[in-house]
Amino acid sequence: MLPDFEAQHEVMAFLQRDFVPGPLETKRLRQLAYSTAQATQEVDERIRILEQELEALKERKLSLQSKAEWATDLLAPIRRVPPEILGEIFTHASYIQDTTYYQRFYDFPVQDIDSNVSPLVLLRVCRRWNRIALQTPSLFTQLILSGRSSVDPQKIIPLWLERSGCLPLEVYLHHDCWPWKLGGKASSFKTTLGLLGANMHRIKVLGVSRTQLLLSALFPQGTTTEAPILRKLHLSTYSGTASWWTHYEGKLNAPNLEEFTNDGWGLRLHEFVSFTPNLRKLYGHRVYGPPELRELFAQNTSIQKCRLFYGEDESSFTSLNDQPHSPIVLPQLEYMIFICNGHRRHLSRALMTINPQVLTTLELSSTLESAAPGSQSAAKDVLHSFQTWISETKPPLRRLLLKSMPIPEVQLRRLLEATPLLSQLCFEDSPMDKGAVSVLDRENPNQMDLCPLLEELVIPSDERKPILEAVFQMIRSRVKYLEETGDERVLRRLKKVTFSDRYILTPVEHTALGGAVTCLMDDYPDLAVSIQ
User: Fold this and answer.
1) pLDDT in tens, 465-483
2) Could you give the 3-state DSSP secondary structure of residue 511?
3) How far is CA 173 from CA 98, 161, 218, 242, 423, in A?
4) Which 3-state string (H, E, C) describes 244-281?
5) CA–CA distance from 67 to each of 63, 125, 201, 497 (Å)?
6) Would you put residue 488 in left (φ > 0), alpha (ψ -120 to 50) or beta?
7) Share in percent of the chain as helix, strand, coil (round to 5)
8) Which of 369, 436, 365, 368 is nearest to 403 (CA)?
9) Is residue 41 classed exposed, middle or buried when 0-12, 13-18 and 19+ CB atoms within 10 A define those classes?
10) 37-48 residue pLDDT tens
11) How far is residue 337's CA from residue 499's CA, in Å, rounded to a whole number?
12) Please, are residues 234 and 206 in contact by the beta-carbon 8 Å criterion?
């Protein structure tokens, strides 16, 4: 007897027996196999039909989803924004990139041009954004290519010049972005820069770094480059190539130039830029002797901030005219950094050629090594020259920094007597003896009113115990002494003292200094004291 084929366990048990079907069983089994095969074919056909229906339903679903997404996209708030407004949003978005590196050295609002930042990244979002971005000229007005740029300047510069239309440009070029991008082909290099040079009339901010080839392409020798809207110009290079610019024959006509930075180049401003009546800021410029200093300020009386490197090239002026000149009045000069290097025999005469009437900040330093023969005497001569100049012109100085020069007692006293409005005084890497420190001590009746408004003091740390004791005695006298003087002025108290670590103090010396600072802060909690 055959098993019930609906019961799997019976069939499995029956298969384990030594069963040989007879004629009747054989007929029944053949009929069962045939009918089951027929039923299987019917099921397969049904499955095929259902699968076709399922695919059709899936396609229908995708179609409906697409229509829903299209409808939702058309209702999206961003589509209500007109292309002009969206272009403005793109432009403002370019101003919030990570600009830490560039803000420290230059005043550019965006970072390097790169495929992962605006505006190039906007071109890959969608066709509408691509079209709007390419039709927004303000997105392409900052052309910044440094050594970290990952784009090909040979493609980027023409694109930026074309898409920026006629808007003013801000350009910073670094030579490191060129060699491997252009395969070292000088012809391609010059052709690309030639396009930029042809648009110099549109450039309002220009920074060029480290290479003569960039400069000679932008300012061809024997010609005068017109830059009518140029406001800021920054040139920097390695010091080893500075002499190349000393005799460079390219000229620049930038009548609206307001800021000029000249780091590492040996060029003279009046020989490169023909006319600068609006110059306000001058950084890193080199002046060789009294005639050049006088000429510089005679042509730029509106200057407000400057950093000058002063030296005396005897070959540049064979003799000085002893005929007295009235000082050049500088009614807007507020901030001045004066770095002396090389010879300075005529420094006093050079300083007497200018009269800054509103100078409030003066940073004075010497680049002579303290170990060099005669360097101590030369640095003292620098301080004496400035002391004489300040006593004569009496600028309203409020911040004075003396860097890398010895501080003699007599000259320091005379200098501070001529600066009664000082509120910040800084001695950076400037060795002081006990007498120089005592000049600021209010316990001395003759010096009680010296620097009456002084509130912040930076003074070098010193491992010598007598000097350290004199420093803390002086600080205490300026913290505790607070009374009205005969002319009804108030002697202000020190609010902040910083010890600059000029020397490499041993752990014991540093501990001793720290202990003295702690005691001082315990006695005067309102006094801010730090060691740097």
Assistant:
1) 778 888 888 888 888 765 4
2) helix
3) 19, 14, 11, 18, 41
4) HHHCCCCEEECCCCCEEEEECCCCCHHHHECCCCCCCE
5) 6, 21, 51, 71
6) left
7) 45, 20, 40
8) 365
9) exposed
10) 999 999 999 999
11) 22
12) yes
Q: Which domains does the chain have, with CATH numbers?
A: 8-75 (no CATH), 302-313+327-422 (no CATH), 432-532 (3.40.1350)
Determine contact, residues 87/136, Cβ cutoff 8 Å: yes
Q: Hey, what are 131's tokens?
A: 């079209």
Q: Which amino acid is at 350?
A: A
Per residue in 227-238, pLDDT tens?
999 999 888 775
Q: Give the residue ranges of DSSP H helices in 201-258.
A: 212-218, 242-246
What pLDDT shows up at residue 61? 95
Q: Which residues pair with 401 in a beta bridge?
A: 363, 426
Q: Give the pTM.
A: 0.74
pLDDT band at 378 (very low <50, low <70, confident <90, very high): low
Q: Of 369, 312, 317, 307, which Cα lies nearest the Cα of 339?
A: 307
Yes or no: say if 260 and 281 are a contact pair by the CB < 8 Å rule.
Answer: yes
Q: Is residue 240 over pLDDT 60?
A: no
Task: Check: CB of residue 220 under 8 Å from CB of residue 159.
Answer: no
> What tokens were used for 466?
């007598």
Query: Does 228 sit behind a cis peptide bond, omega within 30 degrees of 0 on the bond before it?
Result: no
Handedness of CA 141, 145, 149, 151 (dihedral sign): positive
Q: Is the per-residue pLDDT at 216 higher than 70?
A: yes
What is the Cα–Cα distance from 346 to 288, expressed in whole angstroms? 10
The total of other beta-carbon atoms located within 10 Å of residue 494's CB is 23
Q: Distance between CA 508 and CA 125 in Å, rounded? A: 62
Q: What are residue 500's DSSP bridge partners?
A: 460
Which residues touch 266 (CB under 8 Å, ≥6 apart)?
A: 242, 243, 244, 245, 246, 286
Distance CA 383, CA 340 (A): 10
Can you tell me the distance from the alpha carbon of 270 to that of 521, in angstroms, rounded to the nearest whole number? Answer: 52
Angle at 315 (CA atoms; ends 313, 319), nearest 5 degrees = 95
Largest CA distance in the chain: 145
Matching residue, tokens 């002084």: 454
Residue among 506, 409, 526 nearest 467 (CA): 409
| Chain center to CA of 460 | 28
Give 51's contacts (C-beta < 8 A, 6+ positions apart): none
Q: Which two tokens stand for residue 149?
A: 């740029």
Amino acid at 225: T
Taking CA atoms, 399 is separated from 176, 220, 395, in Å, by 39, 42, 11
The whole-angstrom separation of Cα 157 and Cα 162 is 9
Q: Are 29 and 2 in contact (CB under 8 A)?
A: yes
pLDDT at 109: 44
